[in-house]
Amino acid sequence: MSQTGGDRLATVAAALAILLVSMAAPPAGAQLGAPALPQTQAFDPDTVLLDASLATDGDASWEIRYLIRLDDENATAAFESLDADVQANRTAYSDRFADRIGGTVGAAENATGREMAVRNVTVRTTRQDLTRQYGVLVYGFEWTNFAVANDSALRAGDAIAGLFLDETTSLMVSWPDGYRVVSSDPAPDETGDQSATWRGPADFTTSQPRLVVSSAPPPPTDTGEGDTMPTSIVAGALVLLLVGAGLGWWWRRRESTDDPVTADDDAPPEELLSNEERVLRLLREHGGRMKQQQVVEELGWTDAKTSQVVGELREAGELEGFRLGRENVLRLPEVDGPADPPDDEPEK
């Protein structure tokens, strides 16, 4: 039986979750040809950091870092034992990780339909001084086609849709110099000049996380200074022109037919609408505001297809979105929302 899009995304999320848990501990000593570590020296990380750095072609350089606080003798002894084991058996560690992450990337390939691969797997240990000293186990690798690269935009997140971050785990996605954020879902907990970070606990839906960045310059804004006619005046004149032309056409048609013209008379049939037009018309029929899951149900689309179409509309400025609890709510820009909704967090 073939998997649905949602099932395939769930498989990716589950595979990555298993990977994060299983890779936190070193391989069994018997598999490495080295003595097994005592149970008291098991490597139990205090923090897990997922770091994906996007390239302009959609590939991503990943690092998964497991941090343990070296604040007592047991923790220090456990890390020193792990450090020695990694130095002695580096290939065994990297091969084991490559097998595990390869399964995760394979599941993502099936879910997204993009050809993907894992390259250049590395493993190392280090110490890091933050507010205190940490021992760090670091796995690095290249994930090809992690993001979709087209035109001047990078669209990332569908390959890890449905990911769960527990309270010790954070996800950071960074992008190349010269790119800017167009949209993100959900809104990150922290945004830098070239990065967005989500901190656990976070339970992403099958259409999250999503991040769109673009190297295209933002639309120009006109302050109305100098000899240039202010944008508001130009826009107002254009609206009046279009309204006048529309009323003239309506009046002439009414005189020629002696029948009133209604919106339904002139609406194109459903099959002639683009995907974007179908979403916009559906929102207008519902007063300009509805839940994204409702769009999925009424149009009979998959979550992935709906998310892609909605993302393109939001990128074009034809649609807005915000979080209401754990639901994504879509809204036409001309529709006003509540003055101060306690649970609504507008998308950036």
What does this structure look like?
β5 (148-150) and β6 form a beta hairpin. The chain starts with a helix and ends with a strand. The protein has three domains: 5-214, no CATH class; 233-266; 268-348, Winged helix-like DNA-binding domain superfamily/Winged helix DNA-binding domain (Arc Repressor Mutant, subunit A). Helices cover 36% and strands 26% of the residues. With 348 residues, it is an alpha+beta fold.
How would you briefly describe this protein structure?
This protein has 348 residues and is α+β, with helices and mostly antiparallel strands.
**Oligomer, anyone?**
single chain
Q: Give a count of the beta strands, DSSP E runs of length 2 or more.
A: 17
Task: Give the amount of beta strand, in percent.
Answer: 25-35%
> Taking Cα atoms only, what radius of gyration do you get, to the nearest Å?
26 Å
Beginning-to-end CA distance, first to last residue:
39 Å
H/E topology pattern: HHEEHHEEEEEEEEEEEHHHEHHEEE
Outline the secondary-structure elements:
Layout: H1 5-22, H2 29-32, E1 47-54, E2 60-69, H3 73-88, H4 90-112, E3 118-129, E4 133-143, E5 148-150, E6 153-156, E7 164-165, E8 169-174, E9 180-185, E10 190-191, E11 195-199, E12 202-203, E13 210-214, H5 231-257, H6 263-266, H7 275-285, E14 289-291, H8 292-299, H9 303-315, E15 320-324, E16 327-331, E17 344-346
Parallel strand pairs: 1-8
Antiparallel strand pairs: 1-2, 2-4, 3-4, 5-6, 6-13, 7-12, 8-11, 9-13, 10-11, 14-16, 15-16, 15-17
